[in-house]
TrEMBL record:
It comes from Mesomycoplasma ovipneumoniae 14811. HAMAP family: Ribosomal_uS10. PANTHER family: 30S RIBOSOMAL PROTEIN S10 FAMILY MEMBER (PTHR11700). GO terms for biological process: translation. It comes from the Bacteria. This is Small ribosomal subunit protein uS10. Belongs to the universal ribosomal protein uS10 family. Part of the 30S ribosomal subunit.
Amino acid sequence: MNRSNSLIFMSTTSIKIKFKSFDHRQIDAAAKKVILLARELNVETCGPVPLPTSRAIYTILRSVHVNKKSREQFESRTHKRLVILKVSPNNQKAVTEKISRTQLPAGVWLEIEVN
């Protein structure tokens, strides 16, 4: 195999970024911020892909001693988004560090997975 053909099949690594938050507006703002940062670094992006929202329902008795039928329910929803970045192996470390150091809105969790 000659040298010119090896440059055509240059491999790329994918960086999967998962966002989690209780507020969907904050998570959309964080995903938009990361996508704009990736465009500045000339990285190919895919997303944000909305993932299923998980719901947790908590039932609590209103009265401590009597009235078992009187209950109150609370719910918390966790919204999730996925952004996939396709990066060359040379830029992988720089892009990952730049994304992890970005200031995101309060209440947004970030999980970075490199393949």
